[in-house]
What does this fold into?
Amino acid sequence: MLTWGDVRRWDPAAIGRVADALNDGCTKIIAANDDVEAMARFTGWTGDAATAAATRGASLTSTLERLVAEASAVRRGAHEVQIALDRIVAFVRETDELAHRNGLTIGAGGEISVGVPQPDQARVKAELADRVEQGLRRAADVDADFAEILRRALRGEITEQGGGTLAQAADAGAAQSGLSIIGPPENGTPGENKAWWASLSDTAKVALLQGNPGLVGNLDGIPAADRDAANRAVLASEIARLQGDPKLKGLEAIQQRLDRSDPQAFLLGLDTSGDGKAIVSAGNPDTAANVATYVPGTGSELSKIGGDLNRSDKMWAAATTSGSPSTAVITWLGYDAPNELTDAASDKYADGGKAALAQFQDGLRETHQGPASHNTVLGHSYGTTVVGHAAGDGGLAADELVFVASPGVGAHDVSELHLDGVNQDEIGKHVHATVAEHDMINLANVEIAGYDPILGQDPTDADFGGQVFTSAPGTDGWGGYSTEAHSEYWEDNNPSLNNLGQIIAGKPTT
It folds into this structure.
């Protein structure tokens, strides 16, 4: 039975050296492939001796194929186990450091003792006990996974299939090295996806993240760090594949944002089909106290995502300045946005995106660690229509809604909107809206001949029932309106940016 002391002494690099040695051995055997195959062919030589030699050569080739397949399987398994061990050893080190900072020690058997008395030690001891149990369980899973791979190799269950060269035997063996992994539930809820992921060992998770990252990266309910690892692999392959494609500009903007810190960015979703979709978080939503999801509007697509990422960074900074202890602001381009203003007169794009937004918000609740975070869902322009439709159809897993420059949110008043963290009789206190005086969107909110605006009531109207916050008037233009004013809410000197930070931080606005 594994103990805390055993895992503390684990050396992932040693497993890596085993993988390297097996790889070197396979490479040398495969390099001699032509000579090995030649032993089974004796052109022009006939008779009993020739037949015996050919039989012996074929037997040797078959044996080498089996050995190469088995060695390749163990090599790949060792490589995956090394990565899993790196994660576990880091977890053990972090747990030991947490104990030390709080005047506690963890013995080799996992027992926790008090060294120097400090405040709050009872709570920390309980947390450490949970971490020890979790770490040992993960270590036992990885140990069992690698042991099973070794047993399969020793039993001869890993073989080259279908004949061919030694290189093909190596590929076949590597393909059989992993344990059987049941895939995620079909059309699973975030809770079901979370349960499936939690059921996998670290080795199985590593195998999926390396071998099938596209399966994991877009699943709501999977932790942000794991989605990020999967999607970074997809991003790299798509950047290489889409050279010359307009979407490449957006992919490169995402890569540049991932390369920067303060805050660290997480790639939570990526889809390059059509106009493309992407979900990028400034900060880790699984650990942040305040989490905001920003939904952009008309004209948004993967190739133009750089500007939206910049807006999210600005809101993260504004929330931090407003006193948020930890923040994540997510750019959610997870729907097909209208391409033109004429398209934005229809609510079909909102109806097409509302379910995905609701499920994403459910996923944030599922994967969050510790006390529940304060969650805000914020839309700009047609993005407010998507948010409004999602909040109107069954509700959103959020505490605040924000509508910036809205053409309508599919509702006549706040009573038609629903948030899972808010009592319905208090919904008006948690719905916020703003529009600039000179924003051309005001033209879309005019009642004509007694008919309501096409996409619903203007959420800044007093009778809508929400909280209206201040924005700068914006750039003036012909007839008092301009397109520039529609995009100036994130300018550094605009009070709307400060107000957005206040809402995300859970503070009052002006």
User: Anything to note?
Assistant: The CA atoms of residues 130 and 348 lie 47 Å apart. The chain has a mean pLDDT of 88. The chain has 15 helices and ten strands. The two ends are 61 Å apart (CA to CA).
